[in-house]
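[Q] Does anyone have a clean structure-token version of this?
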Amino acid sequence: MDTGVDGGAADRLISFVINSIDPAKFAFVSASITRAMGGGRFEIIGIHDAKSMCDGYRRGLAASRGDPVVFCHDDIELLMTDLPARLARHFERFDLIAPVGTRKLISMNWASSGSRNLVGAMCGQNAAGQFGIGYFGGSERQNDGIVAFEGVLIAARRRVAESIGWDAETFDDWHGYDTDFSFRAHLAGFRLGVVLDLAIIHRSEGTFGDGYVRSEAAFNRKHASRLSTGSGVYVVLPVPAPTRAEVVAFFDRADLPKLHRELQLRVDRSTNAAGHRPRAMLLRGAWDPTNVDVREAVVAPDPPTRNGPCTCGSGLRYKDCCGKATAARR
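[A] Here you go.
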């Protein structure tokens, strides 16, 4: 366990809690944090034998001393050099912040509510070493009304983190920890914000193995009565950013209102084409900006009802349009 790393200048101690079993990754992210802190005081609590994300984060929180507390993955790179100032500005308005989240939650998968509700952006790196940013939405640097986060990095006031806690009993794997923690914070009345000024490169790929399925079932048992219903088109707007400097420029100076309008136009086009539902998937951290299947992920529409609108877009009822042909073939 690593404690007491002191950057010097700023008054407030900031704690970083990281689960990591890879010494090289832990060294890299620690060096990245040191640069990002720009001389501010901080400590890094490394948990190297966690049984789950919640287990490690719970133990790391107990061992930490700072406020706020930043819970983050070990496969990220922070590109800013003034993180203390950015965190201080955001905590004037919010109790918890993250770079990606949703204003509506219908399942453990934060993305499943569709792009009308998603906010944030994340930079990935593909196998060829190219950077690309996936923009989910949000016309402001600070976005409120958030009910749940994606967990690559979550920063929380200490009293909030201690009050909400990490449910290691229910989530004993590596999934669901982030949605559960942030959703419970929302239900408890704390202010969640997605911020679009944290330049982070995330080198990872989402997985959907048995552990994910078990965690999703546990999440549904715990929160089913509190979840929203419905679905929507899931579209990710790709933003090429070949260099680190261009990644930083996006998070510091991008025209977010323009990007948000473009994203919504794409959602409108997809919605008008058919009543799509979003694929139950996470944006892959090693996001490839040339892969259309990742940046615009939709699946087949619900089966039409007899009296519902026809899926061909004619404006007629299904039974009076394509349904006639279907009935004739029977």
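[Q] Thanks! Anything notable?
[A] Residues 256-273 form the longest helix (18 residues).
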